Amino acid sequence: MSVVEDVMVLGSDHPLRSIVRDEHLLLSPPHPPKVPVKLWGEHPPLTVVHYPQQYEPEAFAPPRGVYENDEIRVEWQKLDGRQPFYHRNCDVDEISYQIGGERTLMSELGVIEFQSGEFSRIPRGVAHDNYGREDSHLLFYIPAPVTELAPAQRESGAMIPPFPGWQPGEANEAITQCMAAAGHDITVFAVDEQLLLEQVHQEDRRMAVLRADPAQDVTWLYTTDRIRLGMVTTIPGGQRRYRRTLDADEIQYQAHGHRTLITQRGIVDLGPGDFVRIPLGISHTSVVTEPGDYVSLLSHQELPQVAETARTADAYTPEQLPSLTVEVR
Fold this sequence. Notes:
This is Homogentisate 1,2-dioxygenase. The protein has helices spanning about 25, 195, and strands at about 1-10, 15-20, 45-50, 65-70, 75-80, 85-90, 90-105, 110-115, 120, 130-145, 145-150, 155, 170-175, 185-190, 210, 220-225, 225-235, 240-245, 250-255, 260-265, 265-270, 275-280, 285-290, 290-300, 310. It has about 325 residues and is mostly beta strands. The model has no long low-confidence stretch (mean pLDDT about 95).
């Protein structure tokens, strides 16, 4: 079957070029070379990381790193209660995506009460803490400054008390570098929490809460010259079309629905709570039988997996394609 492959670069919504491919050949191993020289290597299949979206009680633990390089880190966190300190980043903007549960973000720029599917960005140098109730969320640490690409649905606001039952008192504040990685605190000291939260009255800025437009195929929400972060909506129907990004790794987090990811590094079924990394230069597409969406992060720099692998993609076989008849918009 003939398919179209769009060759893309980071930062552009339009292909450099679109190429007609034989889908079977696109996914098949190369023909054996006719010379006695090794011309290419063997590459491992894609790997999937999984954290359940259903909340399971456990003692407080730091966020779990999923992907990381020397500029960017992607983490998964769940929280039922307060964090042990306020946090101020020296080098990065901190973006969160709310998976489920309830979470109150408290900061010098105001308070946000999150709903599932919402994003926010904490600017570099702003102290913040969280109060979660069976909460789970993603964190993206990205070199500052990061720019919003979508209008705010609402903004943080001055709110004291920040949540019912809050009592003023002493807290700790941690100053960190290196994307707040463990062991990279610069100093930790005691602070008056009420005084910290009342700083909002001295600030002109507020934090924007963003949400993807479900009517769009792709909603890009944040950007720098080296990353793009947004949400992809998938529905059954339309022509199966492949995409090959020449200059960026893509991290995908399946938020809702199920889909089959077809790539030149294998085929894998994805469901809510799954992460996958598609290296730059790898052609891929998705097949779905139900509506869904996933978070997409494009990184100009390689973004290796640091979490434990839950499963790997299966090697392509010609028998698989006829069963993948439902396509993605």
